[in-house]
Amino acid sequence: LDVSYLIGLFATVTFSVTGVLAARAHNMDLVGIIVVGVVTAVGGGTIRDMILAVPVFWVADANYLLAAVAAAVATFLARDRIQRRMQWLLYLDALGVAMFASLAVVKSLDLGLGAAPALVMGVITGIGGGIIRDLLTGRPTLIMSRDLYATPILFGVAVQLLLLRMPGVDPALATVIGGALIFGSRSAAVFLHWQMPDILTLPGGDS
Amino acid sequence: LDVSYLIGLFATVTFSVTGVLAARAHNMDLVGIIVVGVVTAVGGGTIRDMILAVPVFWVADANYLLAAVAAAVATFLARDRIQRRMQWLLYLDALGVAMFASLAVVKSLDLGLGAAPALVMGVITGIGGGIIRDLLTGRPTLIMSRDLYATPILFGVAVQLLLLRMPGVDPALATVIGGALIFGSRSAAVFLHWQMPDILTLPGGDS
Amino acid sequence: LDVSYLIGLFATVTFSVTGVLAARAHNMDLVGIIVVGVVTAVGGGTIRDMILAVPVFWVADANYLLAAVAAAVATFLARDRIQRRMQWLLYLDALGVAMFASLAVVKSLDLGLGAAPALVMGVITGIGGGIIRDLLTGRPTLIMSRDLYATPILFGVAVQLLLLRMPGVDPALATVIGGALIFGSRSAAVFLHWQMPDILTLPGGDS
Lengths: 207, 207, 207
Hints:
The structure is a homotrimer.
Chain A: H1 2-22, H2 30-52, H3 57-60, H4 63-77, H5 79-83, H6 86-110, H7 115-136, H8 150-165, H9 171-191
Helix pairs in contact in A: 1-2, 1-4, 1-6, 2-4, 2-7, 6-7, 6-8, 6-9, 7-8, 8-9
């Protein structure tokens, strides 16, 4: 419990940092930056909790808000130093996605959801904040890219759900494996520039 | 009851198919396509249920998710054959809108809502998924078009609400009439290229 | 209570009018205009209520819907006369923002929220409707501007929360002061063309 709380806070910080840097080229002011950082960090979990009809996590515990605001301000101040390490941020973002998505599956199953809605909850929590960030800052959403972003989440969460169904598998282990698979496959996609094969992609511009 | 369940599933399939085809020109991969299909299919109803503070329908019954995913994948596979019949899709979409909107009114009234909020619920359920789809795929939302899309919903739902107030009118009949009016007026708008008259439209570009 | 109800209705009318006029150059028809007016007017409060898990305000009381629709239609009809006074609308909008945000803080605290989530609720209620309007009509969201919009809300709400913590301060007075500070600082920003200083703004185009 305590560990998953710390992981949640760490993922919040991660998403706030990467949210601010993703929006960075856009001539924004500090207040806008804080809004983008906070929205990226808590947006996906907020949609998750509204759909699950449970109290929204940052209303119940303001530490998530404070962590996201502090991370956004720190990122604004240190932006020149961070910018030289932009590639690292994709891995940091992958780590945040992995943690948010696999924990969201646990939360959903604890509330009695079936496997299919729990999988959807994992995806929503993993990509929701990033999509709201893209909408607010006028960027094409990650849905429009052939980069593998939602696919690693689907893959890791599906394995996590399969393991959780097997008798004798420790639920915590299944969650760690699911998260590790999300992080590993997303990182591999970044490092090796994986894209969806053509056969699974619509040819553009022929409508 | 059973019939309205089947109608709901059919409307979900309809929206997933038309959602995928509407987003089709955009160089998307299969996972993105599934996301767009599912969001278009269940987005409006999800907003409806969150506003109504009732359990979101696809969390309670995963068949809606499975139907939307299956329809999105099938549309991806059969896209070349379907593309030749694009005009038919506008009528299929009109059918989905009519079913979703008129059923949402029934659900809202059952929960004790007044006529005005129930009418808004019908509109939200009818156009919500399509608007989220447009935002995710970077297209102008249907609000920005002079094509008649929300107007047929308003018209059919208003008649449905009037009929439901009349003594001696079978509620199921009122709902069927409301849905038929939405489908009929939207189909006529498509077939006859109806647009709002100039007097009810803002002249563009004069701000 | 009665006074805050009337203030809420007045703010609803204000947002509907400014929402319609902000979207005005876009070749929209009357139904689209009503949708934009209503969404701008009730969007922020709807997100607030969904996050707070309380009944959405316009479901419980349809007067908000009727006020927003009437204001949107009236604005459409009187658009040429209003257009000559566009500058006034920024002050009217500031008044609506001030009322919505400071009342949202009161509602949030009444529901037992802490200061940080209550502050976020004030901001969401103040800017949520305008952001949804911008997304629906394809305009850059107000987050992307250096104009001071969210900043006056943060300032006024923070002072309101501080005053509410002080012993012996009348809560109603604290709310009026908070709202007056939002209105005053936003109006000053409009009148004096205040923008964020460069040191608090990301230089554009260097990503």
